[in-house]
Write a structure and sequence with these properties.
about 900 residues, alpha+beta, Cytochrome Bc1 Complex, Chain A, domain 1, globular
């Protein structure tokens, strides 16, 4: 049968069940550049044996290490990579999902390899210990992750008989051999006990016909054994009565404050066609004028509010309401909860109205009607769980369905959002705690919420400042896309004069009434000094906060907007239905000058930005090294610690004059793309100029320099980082931005990355975070190798990287001619991949404008250069990277317990300021 599809979706769909009871959705997409498949198994860490916690996750890892048909570990990943593909998997509570994409011509061969995971994996004993270490590294990687640490506390405060309490990741302790039982034996037994065709679902997408895909599907996946396991059933409740009415105080690693209210509900999956919780989340999480968030912001207690999240499973559903607190908010938790219950009463009395449901229904219907094609891998991985959750006819529509307003159902669920069905979690530094969570050592304390507090909250009446949302003025009225007068494939420059450039493309391919607006405002004043950069970023945060209540209805109606500071000034982007984008832009521009910011909001936003920048020192080591790399080489992107020194000294009185000066001389670059006619693009330009003209003079584009490391040999920057793991990043920089150099760097990464990962991560077991990548900075390509390791210090990691680079030319010579040509063709296919949707095309065009690729053909030129490269060219290129002799930048941090090794030789960068003064910038 064929599930109901969007009117804008011209792919063919076919749902069926194979003889072995594997559920299958086949998708024929003649226009796709990639084919993809995703197979999900209805088993996850809930199924882990009590004495083998982490087993489902460990099995997911092991399945990638060879099958009886294709036994060589790493061959699967190398095959996918060589043919322009990628692959991954994840393990959740009740599901495990595996997926890949690949060039169309190799899809059948990819399926042949992929299917064997579920038929005859080797689960080779010789790889068990190595992969057990990899799982342990993954566990250690998240030891300081506040989300994971909070999750463990949640697990320890629910019904201990529910499988939610199990340790999902696993480590060396839970995956050790037991007396009389080997890990390998238990692994095989787990696979045979839980991996069964009747608990699996498969989605395939390809340009091949449904009939061809069906043949492949039956041939490759038909042999999966049906063990007749039936659906897993959870019988224990997640919460007992004694698990409700709790307050949990938890101390985070980072400087963050959060209040989470959790209301346990019965499972709601059966109501997907009516979405009662979507409706309630919409009302509770509203951020416009009169909202609960606006009131709490005004009081200086809360910066953020989100409603509707929470853990869920086949027999439980948490409805979460989460508040991002200010430091002052920590002292007003009781009042915040009281105001929430007052607001819930207002919803109960006035909010349950059919027109509100219809408004949300219209937005979702429009989103479904004009649903755009996504990337092949995202499509299959996103749909596969729907085969377990929705009726076959609703597989595509289920996420968008709001079939009817069911007031009794909504009221029944709303009636459960009461103080006597509540768990409260407060996360903040300095709280008093009396226990440590297992595995992550999270400090926390559990206490009972007093009955008097519950009664007081229950009696709270709505605050007079609270009001429910008005009808939304941003819901699009024009929903028919227009046909362009001329079907062009690249933007035309409609205006090009000092200080202002306008690009326009009326999109003809995707046929949706949507648009993208990109507006880059360059201001030399924004980047004149580190203090100015700090103030510009603060100005953007203040403006975003100021606009939030005004623009929130637009976001609800399917309009997105974003504002961010960058190396030249700042950028505003708008996306979604084009009908009301001009209205939204007018509102944003009309508020941009800030006037005099509200003192309380200024203090809260500044404090929040300070915390965010302080918390950068607590991110995982490899992330800190990436930040160090960009801040060292990009003068307009100073390190957070330098920005912090300036930000702390900024006073409210400075901001209006600073913002006015930001706009004094500006260069505006705009792209109007999508369902926009030329006259409308010119009208938008006039709107922009009308808002800017009274305050602005034409300026020039801001230079975005990149410092050169050429002819300096090995440069070394050691970064202090309080973490158990060590980390290393090695960066090679291109001398030019020519297409040939781009081709060399890109092809080298394409060929090296999967082998590098397999060698250092899987075989040598140096760490879980291992990779090679092409990292362009300010248009200059760069090649990076990075590792974060719990087992080795920077010198050992550098030795491994150098050995890999030194030996790789020999490995290249062992490539067969077919492998060489296939590798190049795989990269060329990636470079030639068509834009999946309007947004991805808009982003590509905007990046081209930023890169001064004004012929919009850099990808094509690089693709041609890749075709011209021969093996000797690449061997010569990699040989130039040969360790110790090339120009490179090494960044490293020493983990606690790893000795400082003085063998890393090169020019040490102790003083980053002095380095920036002596380094020569490229033109930019």
């Amino acid at each position: 049968m064929s599930p109901y599809a969007s009117p804008n979706d011209h792919r063919q769909y076919h749902y069926l069940t194979l003889a072995n009871r594997l559920k299958v959705l086949l998708i024929c997409d003649p226009e796709t550049d990639k084919s993809a498949a995703s197979l999900a198994v209805n088993t996850g860490h809930f199924d882990d044996p009590a004495d083998r916690q982490g087993m489902a996750h460990f099995l997911e890892h092991m399945l990638f290490l060879g099958t009886r048909t294709f036994p060589k570990p790493g061959e699967y990943q190398q095959f996918m990579n060589r043919h322009g593909g990628s692959n991954n998997a994840w393990t959740g509570t009740e599901f495990t999902n595996f997926f890949f994409d690949i060039d169309n011509a190799y899809f059948e061969q990819g399926l042949a390899r992929f299917a064997q995971f579920f038929i005859c994996p080797t689960l080779a004993p010789e790889w068990v210990d190595k992969e057990r270490n990899a799982v342990d590294s993954e566990y250690r990687l998240k030891l300081m992750d506040d989300v994971r640490r909070s999750y463990q506390v949640h697990k320890e405060t629910v019904n201990p008989a529910h499988p939610f309490t199990k340790f999902s990741v696993g480590n060396l302790d839970t995956l050790a051999d037991l007396p009389g039982r080997s890990l390998h034996g238990d692994l095989v037994a787990f696979y045979e006990r839980h991996y069964s065709a009747d608990r699996m679902a498969l989605v395939m997408l390809s340009p091949e016909s449904i009939a061809t895909q069906l043949t492949w599907c039956e041939h490759f996946f038909g042999p999966i054994v049906d063990r007749n396991l039936g659906e897993p059933a959870l019988t224990e409740p997640l919460y007992r009565q004694e698990d409700l009415g709790l307050r949990i105080d938890l101390v985070p690693v980072k400087e963050s404050r959060r209040l989470s209210l959790t209301f346990p509900l019965p499972p709601v999956d059966a109501y997907y066609d009516r979405k009662p919780l979507t409706f309630l989340s919409h009302l509770i999480g509203y951020e416009g004028n009169g909202s609960l968030l606006s009131l709490l912001k005004e009081k200086g207690w809360v910066n953020q509010l989100a409603a509707g999240g929470g853990v869920s499973g086949s027999n439980f559903k948490d409805f979460g309401i989460n508040f991002g607190l200010t430091p002052a908010g920590v002292d007003h938790v009781d009042e915040i909860i009281g105001l929430l219950f007052g607001y819930l009463k207002l919803i109960q009395r006035q909010g349950l109205a059919p027109w509100r449901y219809v408004e949300k229904q219209q937005v979702l219907e429009s989103a479904f009607r004009f649903q755009e094609r996504g990337k092949a891998q995202d499509t299959v991985a996103g749909l596969v769980l729907n085969l377990f959750l929705y009726r076959p006819e609703d597989l595509l529509y289920g996420d968008y369905m709001m079939r009817e307003y069911d007031e009794p159902l909504i009221a029944r669920l709303l009636a459960k959002l009461i103080p006597h069905n509540l768990r409260v979690t407060l996360v903040a530094p300095g709280l008093v705690t009396d226990r440590l969570a297992r595995w992550y050592q999270t400090p926390y304390k559990v206490s009972t919420i007093p009955e008097a507090s519950k009664i007081r909250w229950q009696q709270c009446e709505p605050d007079s400042a609270l009001a429910l949302p008005e009808p939304n003025p941003f819901i699009a009225g024009r929903l028919e896309p227009r046909t362009p007068a001329i079907a062009a494939d690249q933007p035309a420059c409609l205006i090009d004069r000092p200080g202002f450039r306008l690009w326009h493309l009326h999109e003809h391919q995707f046929k949706v009434p949507k648009g993208n607006l990109y507006i880059a405002i360059d201001s030399e004043h924004a980047v004149k000094s580190p203090r100015h950069i700090a103030m510009a970023r603060l100005a953007v945060e203040l403006l975003s906060d100021h606009l939030n209540a005004l623009t929130y209805p637009a976001e609800l109606a399917g309009l997105g907007y974003q504002m961010y500071a960058h190396q030249g000034g700042f950028t505003i982007t708008l996306s979604g239905f084009s009908d009301k984008q001009a209205l939204l832009l007018d509102m944003i521009l009309g508020n941009r000058t800030l006037g005099y910011p509200d003192p309380a909001r200024f203090a809260a936003i500044k404090q929040q930005l300070v915390r965010n920048w302080e918390n950068q020192a607590k991110t995982r080591p490899i992330n800190q090294l990436f930040n160090q790399l960009t801040s060292l080489l990009q003068p307009n992107n100073p390190p957070f610690e330098q920005l912090l020194r300036h930000l702390r000294g900024v006073e409210i009185g400075e901001m209006p004059a600073f913002v006015a000066q930001l706009f004094r001389e500006v260069h505006v670059e705009t792209l109007v793309h999508g369902d926009w006619q030329e006259s409308e693009a010119l009208a938008l330009a006039a709107l922009l100029e009308r808002h800017l003209a009274p305050y602005s003079q034409p300026g020039s584009e801001t230079r975005r320099p990149l410092l050169s490391i050429q002819d300096r040999g090995t440069l070394i920057r050691q970064h202090g980082c309080e973490h158990e793991d060590s980390a290393l990043l090695v960066y090679y920089q291109s001398r030019t931005t020519r297409a040939r150099d781009l081709a060399c760097f890109t092809l080298a990464n394409h060929i090296m990355s999967s082998t590098f990962f397999h060698e250092l991560r899987t075989r040598q077991q140096l760490g879980y975070v291992v990779g090679a990548g092409n990292l362009p900075l300010n248009r200059h390509p760069g090649l990076i190798f990075y590792i974060q390791s719990p087992v080795a210090g920077p010198q050992v990691l550098l030795d491994a990287v150098e050995q890999f680079i030194d030996l790789f030319p020999l490995a290249m010579l062992e490539f067969s001619e077919q492998q060489w040509q296939e590798s190049k063709a795989g990269l060329q296919a990636q470079l030639s991949e068509r834009d999946a949707n309007l947004r991805s095309r808009g982003q590509r065009l905007w990046v081209s404008i930023g890169n001064k690729d004004l012929g919009f053909d850099q990808r094509e030129r690089v693709c041609e250069e890749v075709g011209r490269l021969n093996r000797a060219d690449l061997v010569r290129f990699v040989t130039q990277l040969r360790s110790r002799t090339s120009d490179r930048l090494i960044l490293c941090s020493y983990g606690q317990g790893h000795e400082h090794d003085e063998r890393i030789t090169g020019q040490i960068i102790d003083d980053t300021g002095a380095f920036r003064l002596t380094a020569q910038p490229f033109d930019g």
